[in-house]
Design goal:
Layout (H helix, E strand, L loop, with lengths): L3 E10 L7 E11 L4 E5 L6 H9 L6 E6 L2 E2 L10 E5 L10 H11 L6 H14 L15 H13 L5 E5 L7 H18 L3 E5 L2 H7 L2 E6 L2 E6 L1 H6 L4 H6 L6 E10 L2 E5 L4 E3 L13 E6 L4 E3 L11 E12 L2 E8 L2 E7 L10 E6 L5 E4 L3
Parallel strand pairs: 3-8, 3-9, 6-7, 7-8
Antiparallel strand pairs: 1-2, 1-4, 4-5, 9-10, 11-12, 11-14, 12-13, 14-20, 15-19, 16-17, 16-19, 17-18
This protein binds adenosine-5'-diphosphate and magnesium ion.
Length: 366
């Protein structure tokens, strides 16, 4: 059990004075004991570099990595007692599953007897449901089975921390979902602090206690899945989290007596109460709404409380009982995820509305 802290952790590759690349830029993150942290962001944003600094495979250029309040910058990787799982599994091809699992225990300076090691291997194999495979070699296993063995090798030592770098990237979509649930369950069961790298926001949302969203090496927001989805700190987070992407439109804000009014090309409305305190540096803002929060402004039992506008339907993509509809509006391109789409056709006019409680505002400059 370990509390993990990053204090101003920075990594510059190359010469900082000349053409150095700032891969990680003054990262401050704190992860409570037993929590599951996900590092989320687009390719090249510094996720792997951050994970490698936590694991001791990369030295920070500045800042401190702390385990339980103790700076570990100078502690070598093999002495940090962390277990890492990578996307390429990294199993020993010439060893059986049993040998792959037991290897880490044998190599360590521990007092475990052969029988104790065997017991522990069996216990972990049962936990991961790979008992039947113990005598097989990695080449005889499917991708999902290999990844289970890789996980088994990580948990067998009961390390103080797990580090995962896109461990499911090489698995097909279906298996990825099953395995992420298993990793989630496994981690809650053993209750070991974990840091998990992915560029997949859906994976991050389902598995994380806390998500750290990175862009260009900088922390955009640290929060629970609920917080980053419902209270995105800026436009980057708003667009990176959630699917389909949030709609964003340019607008200006004007003071009108006690209220602030948002003016866009398509509609104008008072700033909803909950957004009045949004920090906005200029009067240039972005108005956002999620496709799921738009609804048809027509039909029976519709009470329209917020801005309403028309979209000319371009494409309708059915997804089960709902459809993702792309259209052109006086805002510009708009995406809506709505039910009751069966009578809609491309080219038709679709009146849409957004409830005030689902409107977001962002500073256009950040
Ligand atoms: P991510 O895992 O989010 O895709 P990385 O941490 O791998 O991103 O990389 C962050 C940035 O640092 C990228 O611009 C990458 O090209 C650069 N980088 C990573 N490793 C090295 C290295 N060993 N030498 C030079 N640049 C590197
Ligand atoms: Mg990476």
């Amino acid at each position: 059990m370990t509390r993990l802290e990053l204090d101003g952790v920075t990594k510059v590759f190359g010469d900082p004075e000349k053409d150095g690349v700032v891969a990680v830029d003054e990262l401050d993150i704190s992860v409570p004991d037993g929590d599951f942290l996900v590092l989320l962001g687009p390719s090249g944003c510094g996720k792997t570099t951050t994970l490698r600094m936590i694991g001791g495979l990369e030295d920070p250029t500045a800042g401190e990595v702390k385990f339980d309040g103790t700076v570990v910058n100078d502690v070598k990787a093999r002495n940090r007692d962390v277990a890492m799982v990578f996307q390429d599994f990294a199993l020993y091809p010439h060893m059986t599953v049993r040998e792959n699992l037991g290897f880490g225990l044998k190599r360590e300076d521990n007092d475990m007897s052969g029988a104790e090691i065997e017991d522990r291997v069996t216990e972990v194999a049962e936990m991961l449901e790979i008992e039947e495979l113990l005598n097989n070699k990695p080449g005889q296993l499917s991708g999902g089975q290999q990844q289970r063995v890789a996980l088994g090798r990580a948990i067998i030592r009961e390390p103080r921390m797990f580090l995962f770098d896109e461990p499911l990237a090489n698995l097909d979509a279906q298996l990825r979902k099953t395995m992420r649930t298993e990793i989630d369950e496994l981690q809650s069961e053993v209750d070991i602090t974990s840091a998990y790298v992915t560029h997949n926001q859906e994976e991050a949302m389902t598995i994380a206690d806390q998500i750290a969203i990175l862009n260009h090496g900088q922390l955009q927001q640290l929060g629970t899945p609920d917080e980053v989805f419902n209270e995105p700190a800026n436009r980057f987070v708003a667009q990176f989290v959630g699917s389909p992407n949030m709609n964003l439109f340019d607008a200006t804000v004007e003071e009108r007596g006690d209220a602030y009014r948002v003016e866009t090309d398509a509609a104008s409305f008072d700033i909803p109460e909950r957004l009045v305190d949004t920090e906005i540096a200029t009067d240039e803002v972005l108005v956002g709404f999620r496709p799921q929060d738009l609804s048809q402004a027509r039909g029976r039992n519709r009470t329209v409380t917020g801005p309403t506008f028309d979209a000319e339907i371009r494409v309708i993509e059915p997804v089960g009982t709902e459809a993702v509809v792309h259209g052109d509006s006086s805002f510009g391109d708009v995406t809506a995820k709505i039910g009751g789409f069966h009578d809609l056709t491309a080219g038709a006019k679709l009146p849409l509305t957004i409830a005030p409680e689902h409107i977001y505002l962002f500073d256009a400059q950040t």
